[in-house]
Structure formats: structure tokens, C-alpha cells
Q: What sequence folds into this?
């Protein structure tokens, strides 16, 4: 069956390199409720590439460590933030799935409720109520001039 769905005009994907992509897919489904959108396999049946969608929006792309390309990172080197409205339920789901919880439920200095977990590959996952600031430029209003960087609410970097 051919899909009639149109891909988005643009988007952002997090790329995760995995030593054990099949196990990572299973973990992300159980711990964070990701939904496999596409899982492409090589001739031997191993995962060659996968796209998992986050129910709240966005996707992650998973590639095995033997993938080619200059953008392939070492396994376990990703850091991802997931926006969730019910962080307590997300925390419980991750805990039950066996996620290594590095930081329990906390409230940050900028008012977000969040927790941090590590997946079996070593990637870090922050799950919290921080949804980001409104998009700037062609995607929304606002935007910062270079002299304004670090002046808005939210995490500040020096």
C-alpha cells in the first residue's frame, strides 16, 4: 500500500547511533512511548535505519554504528530533551521500563519540572515541561538580535 501522507516541508531530527539498534528501539518504545514510523533492514535482517516518532511531536533517527557518513557519532553520545505535559507519568513509565534515572523529578530554576535518564546505549534523555521559546524568523514571532542572546527567560549559557 502506498502512503498518501505528505512529509513535512521541513523539520528537525535527532540522529542516534546505536551499537544495538533493535534493543534501543524496544527500550524507547517501552520507556518513552516512541512509535516506530519506519524500520529499514539490511539483507541480513539487521536494522540499517529507523525513524521513531515522539507522540508529542518530533522524531529520532537511529543508525547502527557501522553506518557510513561524516555525521555518524559514537554510540551513546546523544542528548535529547522531550517536552511532556505529564512528567510524572513519563517518569513512572521510564522507571518501570528500567531506565537508569540520573536525576529524579525536580523543578529547575526556570520553573520546568523534569527528570534525566540514560538509555542502555548511554544516551541522555531529559523529559520535562520546558517546551522552548516561540520560534523566531519565518516560523514565528520574536527572535533575538546578537546583543540580546542570553537575555530571555529559560536556560542561560555563559
A:
Amino acid at each position: 500500500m502506498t502512503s498518501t501522507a505528505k512529509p513535512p516541508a521541513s523539520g528537525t531530527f535527532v540522529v542516534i547511533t546505536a551499537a544495538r539498534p533493535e534493543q534501543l528501539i524496544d527500550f524507547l518504545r517501552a520507556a518513552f512511548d516512541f512509535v516506530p514510523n519506519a524500520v529499514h533492514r539490511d539483507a541480513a535482517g539487521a536494522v540499517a535505519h529507523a525513524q521513531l516518532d515522539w507522540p508529542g511531536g518530533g522524531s529520532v533517527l537511529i543508525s547502527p554504528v557501522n553506518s557510513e557518513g561524516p555525521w555518524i557519532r559514537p554510540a551513546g553520545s546523544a542528548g535529547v530533551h522531550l517536552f511532556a505535559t505529564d512528567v510524572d507519568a513519563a517518569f513512572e513509565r521510564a522507571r518501570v521500563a528500567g531506565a537508569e534515572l540520573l536525576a529524579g523529578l525536580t523543578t529547575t530554576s526556570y520553573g520546568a519540572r523534569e527528570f534525566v535518564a540514560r538509555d542502555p546505549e548511554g544516551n541522555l534523555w531529559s523529559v520535562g515541561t520546558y517546551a522552548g521559546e516561540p520560534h523566531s524568523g519565518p516560523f514565528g514571532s520574536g527572535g533575538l538580535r546578537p546583543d540580546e542572546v542570553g537575555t530571555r527567560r529559560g536556560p542561560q549559557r555563559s
In short: The two ends are 52 Å apart (CA to CA).
